[in-house]
Amino acid sequence: MAETPLYGKVEEVLASEVARGDLKPGDRLPSEEELLTRFDVSRITVRRAIQNLIRREIVEIRRGHGTYVLPPRISQELTTLTGFVEDMDIHGRKASARVLSQAVVAANAIVARQLGISKGVRVMRIERVRLADSVPMSFDETYLPLDIGEQIVKNDLHLKPIFTLLEEKYGIPLTDAEYKMEAAAAAAPIAQALAIAEGSPIFRIERTSFTVGGRPIDYEILSYRGDLIRFVTRLARKPAKKQSQSKALSPRRR
Fold this sequence. Notes:
Elements: H1 6-20, H2 32-39, H3 43-55, E1 59-62, E2 66-69, E3 74-77, H4 84-90, E4 95-106, H5 109-115, E5 122-132, E6 135-145, H6 146-152, H7 162-169, E7 174-185, H8 188-194, E8 201-211, E9 215-225, E10 229-232, H9 245-249
Helix pairs in contact: 1-3
């Protein structure tokens, strides 16, 4: 069996320290000079070990500041309609919310189209930061039909998920949802809410959830931190169209 190269040994020592919690998310790795002294290896060996840790998404280089340990990234499957609390429960993370605002507003053209109402009709808008183990994960902007929204905001939204309230308290089952996802840069208000730098990469998701009869009941604009989550799905390939047997077997005309 081939011996592990030196850079691999340095890589695994540092990865093990992260796994054990000796190096925690947000911690700065020792400087390159410190690693050279500690492991008694060449500069190229240290740099190759760090590059491998970057590829494994264990650390990241912040230009001008150093190399930092990344929080473990959550892999979120896009196969069923679930809420944030359900998603975090699957990963053993404690979900919470911070309500930033809740107000009655006039639906703009996009909100009106998604909720199947006329532009200008009053709706309830709720803005929240969703957290996992007290770390901001997403900024949620939710729009609800006014009659439902007025009931929802009577509850403690720091503790009660909107999906749970709709289904369990108000008897409005959710059947399916339409997702639209794109990569974006965090604008200043979102960056501030998520405690990240303005312009940081985020996933911007528009999600319209429906109830029985195909009625749209909840329209959300979700901004997820790109450094803390990845979205995973599995796609089935459509069967290839089969040529008719006679055509496939007929000799080519010359």
